[in-house]
Specification:
single chain, mainly alpha, 5 helices, 83% helix, 0% strand, Snf7_fam
Length: 180
Amino acid sequence: EHLFNLKFAAKELSRNSKKCDKEEKAEKAKIKKAIQKGNMEVARIHAENAIRQKNQAINFLRMSARVDAVAARVQTAVTMGKVTKSMAGVVKSMDATLKSMNLEKISALMDKFEHQFETLDVQTQQMEDTMSSTTTLTTPQNQVDMLLQEMADEAGLDLNMELPQGQTGSVGTSVASAEQ
């Protein structure tokens, strides 16, 4: 039940990340429209919104990966518990067989025991592979002015003369503090 809830939470976080990506694209389209109309203040607001949506998408994706890693650990723990119980049964059978000294039974039990250890090794390797692949990539910080310039380039406009130099939006500071 907990494993299901963890997997469900990871998928929900992933969906939220995709939703933020869509909202970021919508904000970028609004930037282009505002630039074409010559309304730079509105374009700056939409740029700040786009950057905020992008950062939210990254955070949701990062949390999704972390929850997915926890789910993998829980799955491994459950599986290892089953393997441990099975190995305990093999050891008890081995004790009884060793007392009777039936070589065929000893050989069969040893094969079964080795198989259990191979299964354990495979599961351990799978857990390690899963854990190493759950790290998420971080993207470099985008500045509002760079995003405005990118959108202006896509719209075919020249913003170098229109943008006041030296001004930074409030999102630049809040993004930097969020990164910390």
